[in-house]
Design goal:
The chain is an alpha+beta fold and 403 residues long. The protein is built from eleven helices and 21 strands. α3 packs across α4.
């Protein structure tokens, strides 16, 4: 049965509305016509329908008019057909919107900035809405752009993943895998071995590793994933916890001979503590079984690097907290000694961070492999430090030779 209805121009809080006599308006949704689907908000957000019929598959458009324009049934046909350029422009828009930069998106896509800008402008003209606000200094999404990005991002990611999966079936995972990792000793010693094993098993994947401190711009620097030892602040990122690294408190023999080794957690308040963070003091929570003690520590030195804090400690400038596996060699050569070994600091978590759950085959393969291997390697390394005769303040035991 035919009914008269119209689509009004959307407001700021919704995409659009279908008004049917005698029925409440409903949000503009998925239309079906002859088994071909299209979303009106992709290409006809602001149109007026002269009439429509209710068919078995939903609403079938009878005729459509743009505001102030003649009836254009051919325009409706084009909106319904998934033209290859439309799909291409969807992907281009997602790349620009995520990076908020035409230059960065163009570099990632391997195309001139002018060509990319022209395609986005033509796409906005086809849609009939402005999706991006451009100024000389920044690029921002409009409210329509934000709504559109939320809808099409998953479609673009799924399309890329489907393509990668087909390629993986044909010849296995392949491509350029770019990884960011912190410049810590355990990365150089243990993660490097995991990456070496992975590379030997996947000859069609080229692995590139950048050592850089957090935070890392995964989108702007085009990383497939990042290895992190602190959870990112951006809630949009996908975080997978891989392992934990044991922490301890360490000082040089010279410093401990001069100041004495702390025998209880409260003794730490009397010591110079090198903080691997900005500030003059910090609160450490130490646990032993069911006991838990919070101590305020501080000293004249602080820095933003665990490696530099370790060097200050080796030089006799005070005590510092460090990953056990980061100071493994210092302990074996007696450059550092562990204090309060029966008290535990919170372990440092190790994360894999990505921008999406829908990952290409190359990234999924690495994460699956490294999650199992890295967790085992770090657990074994921490266990070796505990069992291998680590030199401790006030006592020492035999230590097995390091590999």
């Amino acid at each position: 049965m035919g009914v008269d209805c119209r689509i009004v121009r959307p407001g700021s809080h919704c995409i659009g509305e279908i008004l049917v006599p005698g029925r409440p308006g409903v949000e503009l949704g998925l239309f079906q016509d002859s088994k071909q689907f299209f979303r009106p908000n992709f290409a006809m957000l602001a149109v007026v329908m002269d009439g429509c019929d209710r068919g078995q598959g939903g609403l079938r458009v009878a005729s459509v008019q743009r505001p102030g324009a003649q009836s254009r049934n051919d325009w409706v046909d084009r909106a319904k057909m998934p033209h290859p350029q439309l799909l291409r422009d969807m992907a281009l828009f997602v790349e620009v919107a995520r990076r908020k930069s035409f230059s960065q998106a163009a570099a990632a896509l391997g195309m001139p900035i002018s060509s990319l800008s022209r395609r986005i402008t033509m796409f906005e003209s086809t849609v009939g809405l402005r999706l991006l606000d451009r100024t000389t200094r920044k690029l921002a999404l409009t409210s329509y752009g934000e709504a559109y990005l939320a809808q099409v991002s998953r479609l673009v990611d799924e399309a890329q993943r489907t393509f990668d999966d087909m390629m993986a079936v044909a010849r296995g995972p392949s491509g350029f895998l770019k990884i960011a990792a912190p410049p810590d000793f355990w990365v150089l010693r243990h993660l490097s071995g995991v990456i070496t094993e992975f590379s030997a098993l996947h000859e069609h994947i080229h692995v590139h590793v950048d050592l850089k401190p957090a935070p890392v711009d995964l989108v702007g620097d085009n990383y497939d994933l990042a290895v992190a030892i602190e959870e990112p602040r951006e809630t949009s990122l996908i975080v997978r916890k891989v392992a934990e690294v044991e922490n301890g408190i360490f000082g040089s023999p010279a410093y401990l001979a001069e100041r004495g080794a702390p025998m209880t957690p409260f003794d730490l308040e009397k010591h110079q503590v090198i903080l691997p963070m900005q500030g003059t003091s910090a609160t450490w929570t130490l646990k032993r079984g069911s006991e838990s003690v919070a101590i305020t520590v501080g000293g004249p030195l602080s820095c933003n690097s665990l490696s530099l804090a370790r060097r200050f400690a080796v030089a006799g400038q005070g005590l510092t907290r460090a990953n056990v596996i980061n100071v493994d060699n210092d302990l074996s050569t007696a450059r550092l000694e562990r204090v309060l070994p029966d008290w535990n600091l919170p372990a440092t978590p190790v994360y894999f961070v990505t921008t999406s759950r829908l990952l290409p085959a190359k990234a999924r393969s690495f994460i699956d492999f490294a999650t199992k291997r890295l967790a085992a390697v770090l657990a074994n390394a921490s266990g070796d430090s505990r069992r291998g005769g680590v030199r401790m303040a006030g006592r020492s035991v035999e230590r097995a030779s390091l590999p």
